[in-house]
Prior knowledge:
mainly alpha
Amino acid sequence: MRLYALALVALSLVVSATTTLAAPKAELWPRWETHDAESTATIDHGRYDAFLQKYVAPHEHGPNGVRYAQVSDADRASLGDYLEAMQQIDIARYSRPVQRAYWINLYNAKTLALVVDNYPVDSIRDIGGGIFTSGPWKKKLLQVEGEKLSLNDIEHRILRPIWHDGLTHYGVNCASISCPSLRAKAYTADNLYAALRANARDYVNSGEGVSIDDDEVTVSKLYDWYAADFGNSTRSIVSHLRQYANPGLSARLDMLSRIDQYAYDWALNDEADLSE
Length: 276
């Protein structure tokens, strides 16, 4: 009887752990809808931009890497200062484009800080979780306008439900090889939409986004987890991929009506590993 009870407990924990890996739904936190459409004010992301330009290693035919091992104590402190400054901002006073750039930068900067503070790690999923949980995404790690926020709050309760174009997924970075690459520049209201569309093109045309081998189509798990953001059907996902695919890939996708499998590599986007 004791063994049976232990088995039930173990099974419930495994089920719970599996459930935590499912992608959260986009559920709006209404207080973050407030904005000033007439505002021309901007936010200075210069300190974060300098960090990215120094430590992000762009790769033309693969995911960008981050030189985590090389981050100096001074730059680590500077990244922390940037995060502190961003949390003092009254974001409701800004326009929508400024807000979107702010939230994506805040998410990515905090993710970088988490990895730097815990480095070396094999995967971001090794940070902040227990034996039956995974990753730091649910923890309240930030505070804006008096509200404690998790990374999940930013992505799934602010960014995705306010901006419905699916491009958020090409902006927020989960520090993993199969995630759309972290840019070597900060987002701003002026560069935001062009940069997100460029990210989408880069990702879709990379092996991490789509690969076709002997007519077998493998697509990033991103499009499975967040199918609702890409039309919620295989046809709509393929249509989205074709929108950003180069002519050769688009032609091949045009002849296919299925996705054979989804894949995702959670290994850290560590330049020390990518450059080997």
